[in-house]
Specification:
The complex is a heterodimer. By secondary structure, chain A is an all-alpha fold. Chain A has helices at 2-20, 24-44, 48-72, 86-109, 111-114, 124-133, 136-157, 163-176. Chain A starts with a helix and ends with a helix. The model of chain A has no long low-confidence stretch (mean pLDDT 85). Helix content of chain B is 78%, strand content 0%. By secondary structure, chain B is mainly α. The chains are: A mainly alpha, B mainly alpha. Chains A and B meet through helix 1, helix 2, helix 3, helix 4 and helix 5 of A and helix 1, helix 2 and helix 3 of B.
């Protein structure tokens, strides 16, 4: 119980840092810490494999990818002198509070049925048995999706040719004709 | 254990708040990741309370999809930065211009 409360406080603190930090790099590292503390919560709940995957994929790859992209984009040239619209902040806070209230109401009403722990088989063998039998097609689709994402990100982020150079090349080709 | 349900709801709502009011695209993607974390935690809690292993498999698929989303989103941001030299949403008025 003490560990639960401690991990919750840790996650909430880092999550607040992600949203309310002024510098984007600090937000990225706070996100890294949030994902790591989420991995600790997964471990605490007994899902060891998902905890390891969370550390490897989400914390190890995605959060670091953000930092690499920040290196590519020179963030310091923008500064932090953007004017903040108060109306937008108030409206978004109100919306989010309403959503949070609905969530809390639903959780409060069903807390007795939700907190029952009756997982019979928590082993990785059972998990992978299910993954490679009844979820085999979605698994293969996920691999195709990953391949498509790799190709898409390479195609989108590749440096395009300068338009003027392209037009010159078209003109040269026309002259030859 | 029931405190984790509130934590999942809180993480989702905090990510939603950040996605709405942040101004640069990288911070918005960071907050989307926060929302994904909340959803993954909720899936694991459902798996623990109902006894179905399917919810844990959903977490694996959620992670795959969020990895794809981040890869494509960040490459879109880089392409946008090359074209317009900005990553702020209020500088991008391609549709309204």
């Amino acid at each position: 119980m003490v560990a639960d409360v401690f991990l919750t406080i840790l996650t909430v603190a880092f999550a607040l840092m992600v949203v309310f930090s002024k510098k984007t790099v600090v937000s990225a590292f706070a996100l890294l810490m949030t994902l790591l503390s989420l991995a600790m919560i997964f471990f605490q709940l007994g899902t060891v494999f998902l905890s390891a995957v969370q550390v490897l994929v989400n914390a190890g790859a995605i959060a670091i990818l953000f930092v690499f992209v920040m290196m590519l984009i020179n963030l310091e040239q923008f500064g932090n002198n953007r004017e903040k619209s108060k109306v937008k902040l108030v409206i978004s806070t109100f919306t989010v509070l309403v959503v949070l209230g609905v969530f809390a109401l639903v959780i409060n009403n069903n807390i007795d049925s939700l907190s029952v722990v009756n997982l019979t088989d928590n082993s990785m063998k059972a998990l992978f048995d299910k993954l490679f039998n009844s979820y085999f097609l979605p698994f293969e689709m996920a691999t195709v999706l990953l391949l498509a994402a790799i190709v898409a990100s390479v195609v989108i982020a590749t440096h395009e040719k300068d338009e003027s150079i392209e037009q010159m090349e078209i003109l040269k080709a026309e002259e030859k004709l | 254990m029931s405190i984790y349900y509130y934590l999942a709801a809180f993480l989702f709502c905090l990510g939603l708040l950040g996605t709405i009011f942040k101004k640069d695209l990288i911070s918005m993607l960071l907050c989307l990741e926060l929302m994904m974390g909340g959803v993954a935690l909720l899936f694991i809690l459902f798996s623990k309370s109902t006894g179905f292993l399917d919810a844990q498999l959903m977490v694996i698929f959620t992670m795959i999809i969020s990895a794809c989303e981040v890869a494509v989103g960040l490459s879109l941001i880089i392409a946008l930065y090359r074209k317009k030299q900005t990553i702020y949403t209020d500088d991008i008025k391609i549709i309204t211009e």
